[in-house]
Amino acid sequence: MKIKSLLLRSGVAAAALTVVPLTSYADDYPFDKTGETFTVDEINYAVLTNGTVVVSGYGSAVPSDLVIPESVTSGGTTYTVTGIDDWAVGYGWFDSITLPSTLKAIGGSAFAGINVTELEIPEGVTYIGDNAFAYSSLKSMTLPSTLVTLGSYTFNMCNDIEKIVFPSSLKVIPQSCADSCPMLENITFPEGIEEIGIYAFVNCAKITTINLPTTCKRVLQQAFENTSFTELTIPANVEYLGNGCFGYNNFLPDVKLTIADSETPLQLEGYPFGSLDVTNFYCGRDVTGETLEFSVANTARFETGGSMTRLEGFRWGMPSLSELILGEGLEFIGVQTFLDSPLLTELTLPGSLKEMGKYALSDLKGLKKLVFADGDKPLNFLETPMQNSVPTEVYLGRVLEGDKSTLDLTKVTDVTFGPTLTEIPTDMFKNSRELVNVTARAAVPPVLSIDALPDKTFSAGTLYTDEQATADYVNAEGWEEFNNIYGAQVTVKVSANEGGVVIVNGNSNSEVAVERNAEVEASAVADAGYALKSITLNGKVLAVEPDSEGKFMLPALRKNATLDVVFEKLDGIAVVSDDSSNVSVNGLTISVTGVDCVTIVNVDGRVIYSGADTEVTLPAAGIYLVKTGTTTIKVVVK
Question: What is the mean pLDDT of the chain?
Answer without folding.
Answer: 87
